[in-house]
Amino acid sequence: MSGMKEKIAVVICVYNNSGTLRDVVCRALAQNCAEVVLVDDGCTDCDVEKLLKDLKITLLRHEKNRGKGEALKTALNYLKTREEIRWMITLDADGQHFPEDIPAFLRVLAESPEEDKILIGARDFSQPGRIPERSVKGRSFSNFWLKLETGRSTADAQSGFRCYPVHLISLLRCIASRYDWETEILVRSVWAGLALRDVPVRVEYFTPETRVSHFHAFKDNLRISLINARLVGELLIPLPKKKLLRRKQDFSIFRPKELFLYLLKENNTPSGLATAAAAGTFIAVLPIFMFHTAVILFVSIRLHLNKIMMLAIQNLFMPPFSPFLCIELGHFMLHGKWLTEITFENVALEMHKRLLEWLCGSLILAPLFSILIWIITFAVSSGIRHLLAKKPHAGEEEK
């Protein structure tokens, strides 16, 4: 493990964390990695160079605050010129992360030194009453979108305590510049063929009065939502993504049993199944007659949704029920009155005259049905999962 330390730089990005900065840097230096790189992202609360003048660190500086993403890019641009540095471990300057957990990353790298993965520090959220509710919800939100955009899971997609392979990550281009960079880099890394591995780490949350955080609930969540929307949009456009590594598929189309089991397990969490059901519902209600299955398959593949759920749910909205409801509502929206005579002749034979009514009605009913199906599917799947978790195993029953 000592040989691995010579290939690792610890990167700390700081913006106005003077109260905790020196302690975090000293503890990081105590891990004896090759280098500790500090990126001063325009601090105004102290003179960082003066504060740390007696410590052996590499200091990089932004004259003005440019955001955490830009600070990490600055560190990457510096480290990629250092041939001996292969890995970059990032941690926060606010004291949330424990530099003493760096050896946990080193142990994983010692066992698997290939530069084909990102290690993510999965924070321990099992401390009752000490973890802010917004952090718990934020982590679940980030995990969900990562799964949707890549088909890969991690315990803590929001954690900033990570270990990146420097020379591969520096080849990826991200447009994000603040906290949203950490979201974008994970997705683009998986698209490029890198794996994600969790490393259990500790976390310290101070009281709201003493903790200094620069995460703005509205602005930064909006940025993260926008980058997720962009990434989903890129997925739906069938253009090739940049590949750095080729990874083995989780299944083979030539082994039907393996393929079927993969499809059953694909994104099968309650939120994953509910999202698949809602997406399948939305598409099934739209007036794309004869193309529903093809569109559902395309969307499920691109967004890594459960294909069996999406294909099955469309059967609830097959003609004539769903189209007739949409046409009825669309007729009212366009003409101010209900279509009182719904017959085969004035609907099916005059379908070319009803397409606009069908479209208008579907734009209202598709979102409503999708929300309803999402709620029902989530509740049912959560209930089933809860019951299965409580069901005793055979060995326990014998006792």
Characterize this entry briefly.
With 399 residues, the chain is an alpha/beta fold.
List its traits:
single chain; 399 residues; alpha/beta; Spore Coat Polysaccharide Biosynthesis Protein SpsA, Chain A; 2 domains; seven-stranded mixed sheet; 7 strands; 11% strand
Can you put this structure into words, describing what you see?
The protein is α/β, with parallel strands linked by helices and 399 residues long. The protein folds into 2 domains: 2-236, Spore Coat Polysaccharide Biosynthesis Protein SpsA, Chain A (Alpha-Beta Complex), CATH 3.90.550; 256-398, no CATH class. The protein is 51% helix and 11% strand. The two termini are 44 Å apart.
Rg on CA atoms, Å: 26 Å
Helical/strand content category:
alpha/beta
- The CATH superfamily title of the largest domain: Spore Coat Polysaccharide Biosynthesis Protein SpsA, Chain A
Q: Tally the structural domains.
A: 2
Distance between the termini: 44 Å
**If strands are numbered along the chain, what order do they take across the biggest sheet?**
3-2-1-4-6-5-7
What spatial form do the alpha-carbon principal axes imply? elongated
Helix content: 40-55%
CATH class of the largest domain: Alpha Beta
Number of helices: 17
What is the correct CATH architecture of the largest domain?
Answer: Alpha-Beta Complex
